[in-house]
Design a protein that fits this description.
Structural class: alpha+beta
CATH topology of the largest domain: Immunoglobulin-like
Oligomer: single chain
Strand content: 25-35%
Number of helices: 1
Radius of gyration: 33 Å
Distance between the termini: 118 Å
Helix content: 10-25%
């Protein structure tokens, strides 16, 4: 019968050291796994953000929108004539400025525009150079344009703080008075309301600072 080698006894210290080594190895594996997962998560997040950005760019192109971190120009139209226009009658540029300082001449207002009325010929191509002189967001938005050319009948420039953006649109041949305003909450009510008269227009809109009386007068 072959001789069996006697089993060597393992000391308590050795067992403790072995346990610590295994525990350390497990911790290292966990840390590596966590780092890998974090890296993968960051990669997936970046890919998703890129995908979303490209998807947004596609949507913006479809809506004739130009947008960046400073603001946007929406529903721009430089060359598509309204159905009732045979040609562009004139090209005009409106230099529009927005800021609290323009509200000073009009008691009760907070925000203002350097002008509150503009005139254009029917079938004009109008370029708006919009400058925001405040540190908050302002818009130059016009309503009532033909919906087959401008979604919701609207053209719109927006600037997130101080800066300048330019956009272009074409008006139809009808004589009309178009509402222009800032659509940020309470900005129109506090002074940022204007009008664009095409041709002879159709009278004045109410509550235009310096031009028309309010529809409902405040009673104090």
């Amino acid at each position: 019968m072959p001789n069996k080698k006697p089993l060597k006894s393992i000391s308590t210290g050795t067992l403790v050291a072995l346990g610590l080594s295994v525990s350390s190895l497990y911790t290292d594996v966990q840390a590596a796994d966590t780092a890998f997962n974090s890296k993968e998560l960051t990669k997936q997040k970046t890919q998703q953000q890129t995908h979303n950005h490209k998807a947004m760019e596609g949507m913006m192109c479809g809506a004739n929108m130009r947008m960046d971190e400073s603001g946007m120009v929406m529903n721009e139209n430089k060359d598509k004539l309204p159905k009732d226009c045979k040609a562009i009658s004139e090209d005009i540029t409106l230099e529009v400025k927005a800021g609290v300082k323009y509200a000073k001449p009009y008691p009760g207002t907070v925000f203002g525009l350097n002008e509150h009325q503009w005139q254009a010929k029917p079938c004009s191509r109008i370029t708006v150079e919009f400058t925001n002189e405040d540190d908050i967001r302002h818009q130059w938005m016009i309503h009532g344009l033909p919906k087959y050319l401008y979604p919701d009948g609207m053209f719109h420039i927006e600037i997130n703080g101080k800066g300048k953006k330019t956009g272009t649109f074409i008006v139809p041949s009808s004589h009309f008075t178009y509402l222009v305003h800032c659509d940020i909450a309470q900005h129109m009510e506090k002074g940022m309301k204007a009008q664009l008269k095409v041709g002879n227009g159709r009278g004045d809109l109410p509550s235009i600072p310096g031009i028309s009386a309010p529809k409902f007068t405040d009673k104090f």
